[in-house]
Amino acid sequence: MTKSISVNKKSRGRPVTTGTGQVVGVRLQPHQLGKVDAWAEAQPDKPTRPEAIRRLVEKGLQD
Fold first, then answer.
1. How far apart are CA 27 and CA 53, in angstroms?
2. 5 pLDDT exceeds 70?
3. What is the pTM of this model?
């Protein structure tokens, strides 16, 4: 008897989030998004856009 085809089962439900922090909506212009995306692309771990924005905010808040 042949083996059945393995099915890639994804978990159901909401995806894992970054935590219980407050959601903040920010409107950025295309040239600003381009700079954020370029910065993220230059990072060794290639963060997502939201993660890149979080990191840039942290850098801006450092004393």
1. 12
2. no
3. 0.69
